[in-house]
Automatic annotation (TrEMBL):
<protein>
    <recommendedName>
        <fullName>Phosphate propanoyltransferase</fullName>
        <ecNumber>2.3.1.222</ecNumber>
    </recommendedName>
</protein>
<dbReference type="InterPro" id="IPR008300">
    <property type="entry name" value="PTAC"/>
</dbReference>
<comment type="function">
    <text>Involved in 1,2-propanediol (1,2-PD) degradation by catalyzing the conversion of propanoyl-CoA to propanoyl-phosphate.</text>
</comment>
<keyword id="KW-0012">Acyltransferase</keyword>
<comment type="similarity">
    <text>Belongs to the PduL family.</text>
</comment>
<dbReference type="Pfam" id="PF06130">
    <property type="entry name" value="PTAC"/>
</dbReference>
<dbReference type="GO" id="GO:0016747">
    <property type="term" value="F:acyltransferase activity, transferring groups other than amino-acyl groups"/>
</dbReference>
<keyword id="KW-0479">Metal-binding</keyword>
<dbReference type="GO" id="GO:0046872">
    <property type="term" value="F:metal ion binding"/>
</dbReference>
<keyword id="KW-0808">Transferase</keyword>
<keyword id="KW-0862">Zinc</keyword>
<dbReference type="GO" id="GO:0051144">
    <property type="term" value="P:1,2-propanediol catabolic process"/>
</dbReference>
<comment type="pathway">
    <text>Polyol metabolism; 1,2-propanediol degradation.</text>
</comment>
Length: 209
């Protein structure tokens, strides 16, 4: 075999391996993370959230409790709280959700909330005014430490991810890689992004170079 042929074969094998290395994509609806201080304010001192179901990331769960997000123009009711409690409260909505609320929410990585707008949370007659923490979550891939080596990616990398679907395949750019040995590898997009690519359960993403 000549060199050219071998190179082509190697390229094909690498492409095939990359294809198999795709990862599960999950669509996150609007949700709230609360500090214990804000759980106390909304549900009572020392209140513990009730686990409804566990999420793909170890230890993370959707709680049974719900809150209302109140903006200057309108409200979003029945918004799920994700546990466990965090050091700082954070509200994650889609850009579409921001319209009825009457607020502008910046695209930020989770936890990066300095300088973001505040919002009001309500549970019945109890309210909490967050000084900051309203964001549209930047799309990201949680990558386990072991998979990061296989996928040749590192914490903080910005990659492109291809989504194949009927009628609406697309490539997302500006996807953040987040690596931790506490993660299970999965991509998180919001509902605006999910609708844009005809997401359905089982949709997989593939890093493209
Ligand atoms: Zn995530």
């Amino acid at each position: 075999m000549n060199e050219q042929l071998i190179d082509n074969l190697v390229d094909q094998v690498v492409a095939k391996i990359n294809e198999e290395r795709g990862f599960l994509v999950e669509a996150s609806g609007r949700h709230v993370h609360l500090s214990q201080e804000h759980i106390d304010a909304l549900f009572g001192k020392g209140y513990q959230l009730t686990i409804d179901k566990y999420l793909s990331q170890p230890g993370q769960y959707a709680a049974k409790e719900r809150v209302t997000i109140l903006g200057p123009k309108g409200a979003l009711h029945n918004v799920v709280i994700l546990g466990p409690a965090r050091s700082a409260s954070q509200v994650e909505i889609s850009a579409t959700d921001a319209l009825p609320l009457g607020v502008k929410a910046p695209v930020r990585e989770s936890g990066d909330i300095e300088g973001t707008p505040g919002i009001v949370l309500m549970n019945g007659s109890k309210t909490v005014t967050l000084e900051k923490g309203l964001i549209v979550a930047k799309r990201h891939v949680h990558v386990s430490a072991a998979d990061a080596i296989k996928m040749n990616v590192a914490q903080g990398d910005i990659v492109k991810v291809r989504i194949n679907s009927e009628q609406r395949s697309l490539i997302f750019d500006d996807v953040v890689i987040r690596v931790s040995d506490k993660f299970v590898t999965a991509m998180h997009i919001d509902y605006d992004e999910a609708n844009a690519c005809s997401f359905k359960k089982g949709t997989r993403g593939y890093i493209v170079k």
